[in-house]
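Support request from a user on the community tier.

User writes: "When I paste my structure tokens into the form, the page sometimes reloads and wipes my input. The last time it worked, I copied everything first. Here is what I submitted, just in case something in the input itself triggers the reload:"
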């Protein structure tokens, strides 16, 4: 085994993190390390893999067999001595400056730990004195987002329990789990209507429709959330981005998107199932709707409401023998751009792909 690979196999967790972050993420030299590893004979592969730190194994497995290192595979065709020499030289250069890489990684991590402590304040209830816009007599913001008059609206079937296949709430809670594998079978429009009703359906309007009470709780009934749908496999609906209109119980078509499945997977950092679903629920927050009344406490309420809504989606999906999985790992700017929001006055806060599951 080449000495540089032997050294890599002996690194501890933080050294692995510092080296691999630089090789795979900060530069484009990951393939050179994989090339070196793939040149190993089976016995050398086993020695390397048995010695390697678990974090290194996790990193080298990669997102797919095509891009990762498989310790059980036979070496591919000989890449050529010159390529191996170049790869070895490059990886050795990273190992030679491992100490500086570790120091930089530790400094970065210390900053992250400080940010974690700061973030903990978000979940605390401070209820500090705040002169709200409501107190000052500023007009209440619209409880729903408007849409252009020439928009294409899609009628949804009236929500009904006829689509429900498991009516026991006990069984739905007991069987609820995150699903990351879906079939190619389509959802019906009636099923989509039911899921939208379960998550943001209106029960009762306030006078003059200045607000609403819905199937999920909201602080002061301010309802800061909007529901967007990235639709792949729903009967009678073309692929594209839609938005739910809770007051009308309709959809408004937003845009067609080429390669939508691939984009959803890419924007969720390679989580393939996010793209390969029937429909991906994308929830945004319009903060001012709740800031108008609660000011600085709005952030806490928005996060709570996202949880309320997604849990209802879990249970409603279970009741129609579908599955979902709440997603926080996504590229904020890319998803905001995909659905057409500015990321300031409205921003994505949660994703949850839904699809049919194997019986």
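"...and here is what came back when it finally went through:"
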């Amino acid at each position: 085994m080449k000495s540089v690979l032997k050294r890599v196999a002996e690194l501890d967790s933080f050294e692995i993190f510092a080296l691999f972050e630089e090789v795979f993420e900060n530069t484009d030299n990951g393939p050179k390390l994989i090339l070196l590893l793939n040149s190993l004979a089976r016995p050398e592969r086993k020695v390397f893999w048995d010695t390697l730190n678990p974090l290194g194994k996790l990193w080298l497995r990669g997102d797919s067999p095509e891009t990762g290192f498989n310790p059980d595979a036979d070496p591919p065709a000989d890449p050529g001595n010159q390529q191996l020499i170049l790869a070895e030289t490059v990886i050795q250069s990273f190992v030679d400056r491992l100490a500086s890489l570790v120091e930089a990684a530790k400094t970065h991590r210390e900053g992250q730990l400080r940010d974690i402590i700061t973030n903990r304040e978000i979940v605390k209830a401070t209820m500090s004195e705040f002169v709200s816009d409501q107190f000052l007599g500023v007009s209440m913001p619209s409880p729903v987002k408007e849409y252009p008059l020439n928009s294409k609206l899609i009628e949804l079937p009236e929500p009904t329990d006829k689509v429900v296949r498991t009516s026991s709430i006990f069984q739905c809670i007991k069987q609820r789990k995150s699903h990351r594998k879906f079939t190619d079978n389509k959802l019906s429009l009636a099923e989509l209507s039911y899921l939208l009703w379960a998550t943001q359906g209106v029960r009762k309007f306030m006078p003059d429709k200045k607000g609403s009470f819905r199937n999920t709780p909201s602080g002061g009934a301010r309802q800061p959330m909007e529901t967007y749908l990235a639709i792949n496999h729903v009967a009678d609906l073309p692929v594209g981005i839609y938005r739910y209109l809770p007051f009308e119980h309709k959809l408004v078509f937003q845009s067609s998107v080429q390669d939508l499945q691939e984009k959803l997977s890419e924007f969720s950092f390679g989580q393939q199932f996010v793209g390969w679903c029937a429909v991906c629920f994308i929830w945004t927050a319009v903060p001012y709707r709740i800031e108008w009344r609660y000011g600085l406490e709005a952030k806490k309420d928005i996060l709570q409401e996202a949880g309320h809504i997604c849990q209802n989606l879990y249970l409603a999906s279970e009741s129609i023998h579908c599955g979902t999985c709440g997603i926080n790992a996504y590229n904020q700017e890319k998803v905001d751009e995909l659905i057409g929001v500015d990321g300031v006055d409205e921003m994505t806060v949660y994703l949850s792909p839904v699809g049919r599951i194997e019986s």
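Agent notes: The reload is a front-end session timeout and is unrelated to the input. The radius of gyration is 25 Å. The first helix runs from residue 3 to 9. Escalated to web team.
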